[in-house]
Write a structure and sequence with these properties.
The protein is an alpha+beta fold. 39% of the residues lie in helices and 17% in strands. It has a 5-stranded mixed beta sheet, covered by helices on one side.
Length: 155
């Protein structure tokens, strides 16, 4: 119960950060900052599909923009088809695409589709701990986070 309460508080803080933004650049900056500062997720990536990314204070490593017809998106079809977050280990090609130079440091990943069946892209949070994100874990908070990110970006 304490762990869920702590996650709920962090998600509330995340929501408040997003509500105070006035531009896409500010939104992206706050998403990255909150993941890093509030959730201790320094290995996170945001992949946006078909969106021109503005300049901002977010790290270039954090954000990837891909065209709607990019071949890499086909490899995420199963994730997008469910529209639900997935946790565990991922293919080497996914780790390399998402985390580039840090791919070998990733033991487990949480993947969160954004938009209707991933239409806006995905959020990936990696951990060096192979057991941090696992198949049996609840993804309710990740789903809520995905909805918040989707709505903030769509604005």
């Amino acid at each position: 119960a304490r762990a869920n309460e702590l996650l709920a508080q962090k998600l509330h803080q995340f929501t408040r950060r997003l509500m105070r933004t006035r531009s896409l650049a500010e939104t992206l900056t706050q998403i990255e900052a909150s993941l890093r500062e509030d959730f201790d997720a320094s290995l996170s990536r945001l992949v946006l599909v078909g969106i021109d990314v503005p300049k901002g204070d977010f790290s270039e490593r954090f954000l990837r923009s891909v065209a709607t017809d990019d071949a890499i998106l086909r490899s995420f079809e199963n994730l997008f088809a469910t529209g639900k977050p997935r946790c565990g280990q991922v293919r080497d090609s996914h780790r390399e695409f998402l985390f580039s130079d840090e791919a070998n440091d990733i033991g487990s990943v949480a993947l969160v589709p954004l938009g209707d069946k991933g239409s806006l892209g995905l959020l990936a949070v990696g951990s060096s701990d192979r057991n941090r994100f696992h198949l049996g874990m609840s993804t309710d908070f990740l789903a809520r986070m995905g909805e918040l990110v989707t709505d903030a970006i769509a604005q």
